[in-house]
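Data availability (excerpt). The following record was deposited with the supplementary files.
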Amino acid sequence: MQKIAQSGNDGKSVKSDCSVKIMLKSTGGISINLKSKVKKYFGNSIVELCKKELKYFGIENAEVEIIDSAALDYVIMARIESAVKKLIKTKKEYLPEINVIGHKETKKNQLRRSRLYLPGNTPKLSINAGLHSADGIILDLEDSVAPTKKDEAKILVRNSLIKTNFYNSEKMVRINQLPAGLDDLDYIVPYNVNLILIPKCESAEQVLQVENKINAILEEKKMTSTIWLMPIIESALGVVNSFAIASASDKVVALAIGLEDYTADIGASRTNDGIESFFARSQIMNSAKAVGIQAIGSVFSDVNNPDELRKYVKDAKAMGFNGIGCIHPRQIAVIHDAFTPTEDEIIKAQKIVDAFEDAKSKGLGVVSIGSKMIDPPVVKRAEQTLLMSKI
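Predicted structure:
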């Protein structure tokens, strides 16, 4: 019985991707049927790439069909590898060359006003995503990826982390819900990720499971890398346990809330005024701030309503949230603008910082503006306000 496997996507709406179908044979060598609009220019290099990769995995006899929609090399490589791994058992990885731009570490208090979700199995959306200037780019392995495509997505996300230029955006990956998400880490941790989102997190133990697996992978690979964690609270139980989750590890930099799953869990409909989620949002924000980390609000799903988005973000900011998620690039500018300090906030912050510097220069241990005492957390918040005003 012949073994056949397919990976990737094709069709009229597919761009920057390809479909790869491999049929193993007992004899005959490698034959490749390539269909591509760019075959005249890149056909030979695509065929040679395929032959080289099949040889790497020890496949000597096969019929291969590639339907190419102008995919980049690292995408083609991921699709071939995915098909191969459906046919044979192998732990080998066929990796593209490390991006010459290199890997940038990020800070615990990194600016995270916006984080843009991108389906991990749709390369056309990630190739130029860094140009949109979101504070974070999330390659998603969870809800936006069909169950039958999860294994393909892991390989493609790995290659994207290696080869895609996200410019100044923090590189994030949302893994699958645990325990399946632990297996995703093998494809992510060694390959330039800054932050891992833990979906549907309900306990501190789940945070520690992720952290322990990350540490084990880094130790095995003999690597040193700082990888931050952002648990997403999406259930009533998660809300109740939010403080324990926030304080589970010093690698946790933020708590995020996912309101679609949360409202479904409590049996309510999500509304724009958010009365059904007010307690949960307050609890998440308070738990995060009690530990000294960021609080990140849920996505706003109506991408065609910038006015409501602006109100939503301003309400989140007023509650103490530091950012929200977004699902379309056009939301980023609105989010950044809404989180930018107002003129009154900037003036007040400058007065606080000036008073602090004046008191410090005079050797005073007490800082005050008029009759109001100013303590260090207030000064720190004022400094952050001034920093954000210059962005």
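Summary of structural features: The longest strand covers residues 17-24.
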